[in-house]
Amino acid sequence: MYEDAESNSANILTELYNVVKQRIESRSSGSYTYSLHEKGLDEIVKKVGEECIEVILSSKYQDKQRIISELADLIYHLTVLMVEKEISFKDVFLELKKRRK
């Protein structure tokens, strides 16, 4: 089961990216994603920072499931930032591949 989840990880990230992008482009009313976009880059990076802190704190003081939840929140907010700055996961994956020795 873990192998299936691992092999689909990039697909899940791409799907998340596409959903975030679609909600912003369609100006989805009632969408947290769109409201975050509307508040602008300062709010988006603030949320990324908050989520980073929550990952750190949960890693020190909480159980594994809470850490996973906080990591998912961080990945979501990073994805919103990526869409905002027109950076794709492919761009990031290529950068990671270049760094591999």
List the helices and strands and how they pair.
Blueprint: H1 2-7, H2 9-25, H3 32-39, H4 41-61, H5 64-84, H6 89-99
Helix pairs in contact: 2-5, 4-5
Question: How would you sum up this structure, described in words?
Answer:
The protein has 101 residues and is mostly helical. Helices cover 83% and strands 0% of the residues. It has six helices and no strands. It has a single domain, classed as Orthogonal Bundle (Helix Hairpins), CATH 1.10.287. The two termini are 29 Å apart. It has helices at residues 2-7, 9-25, 32-39, 41-61, 64-84, 89-99.
CATH superfamily, please? Answer: MazG-like
- Class from secondary-structure proportions: mainly alpha
Compressed to H and E, one letter per element, the order equals HHHHHH
Can you identify the CATH class?
Answer: Mainly Alpha
**Annotated CATH architecture:** Orthogonal Bundle
Mean pLDDT: 93
Instruction: Kindly report how far apart the N and C termini lie.
Output: 29 Å
The CATH topology corresponds to: Helix Hairpins
**Total of domains:** 1
**Unreliable stretches covering 5 or more consecutive residues:** none
Question: Biggest sheet, open or closed, and with what strands and sense?
Answer: none
By DSSP (H or I, 4+ residues per run), the number of helices equals 6
Radius of gyration: 15 Å
Label the overall shape. Answer: globular
